[in-house]
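Protein of interest.
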Amino acid sequence: MSNFKILITDGLDESGQSILRASADADNRKDISADDLLKAIPDYDGLIVRGRTKVTASLLDAASRLKVIGRAGVGVDNIDLDAAKKRNVTVVNAPMSTSIAVAELTFGLLLALARELPRADAGMKQDKWLKKELEGVELNGKTLGVIGFGRIGVEVGKRAAAFGMNVIAYDPLISEGDIKRRGAEPVSIQDLYAWSDFISLHLPLNVQTRDMIGKLAFSEMKDGVRLVCAARGGIIDEAELVAALNSGKVAGAALDVFGVEPPGLTETVSHPRVIATPHIGAQTAEAQSRASEDIANEVLSALQGKPLRWKVN
């Protein structure tokens, strides 16, 4: 066994912990506080986090031994990538592990939104027979606009096509030819807004995408559009979403992510035409196992100087 020490702060499936402990000293300190983490971090060569732990410049300043940060999942907006790069700390993630889980949740939200399933279930539990009030819409023949046509967007597109939907996509980082080969019709963002009956977001949160779905975007959308977001909180301007819901411009929204998490009982969460779930996109047994194994192997590879599959910075 090497002398490498790895700290796990947000929990990790046992399969991943076993891989780590076969080659290093791994400490699982799930839910460690920010203050305690700041005190502990100087002793570690590797750090594995999920979305809860904030890896700030101050934390990195204290991490005198740190060589690698592993994100057990996809999004790395909780990690100061610039600060990590300046300190020669490698950041890796596990982008392949949760794609199916997030795509399946997205499509589940899409169906729930189309048929008002949460409202139907809540009514039954209150002994209310809301049959006449619950007239939904069919997915067959509708247009789904996918913004961000990477791994997850493609999987959502496949499921939509199986339901008879017309799939269009916008992704400035992918060529039109590649979008077509992946199963969608490439369009401009303006045409996507104008033509889509449903819109699904699959983007990272960064300077370009923060509040991307705001007042201007809503004004360009088809009346009665329905939105699904299981990507990152902050891409949708929630105040503008509420305004669009209240005006009828947006018929409904299904959100698994929020600008602040947990959001509390905000106007967005409590809106009658919003389906809200607590960031459960990657919360399947299969995805958690894959993520833990992928990130364990990647972090060990970084520490051992081996080639990396998913280096972020």
